[in-house]
Amino acid sequence: MASWNRKQDPPTYETAELIISGIIPIFLIVIGTFGNLICIIILSDKQNRQISTNIYLIFLCLMDTISLYQWNLSNVLYTFTDGTKQIWGTSIIMCKLSEFFPFYCLHTSAMFLTCVELDRACLLRSTWYKRKIARSRIALLICVIILLVLFGLNRFLFGLGFEYSIYDSST
Question: Looking at residue 164, what is its pLDDT?
Answer without folding.
Answer: 55
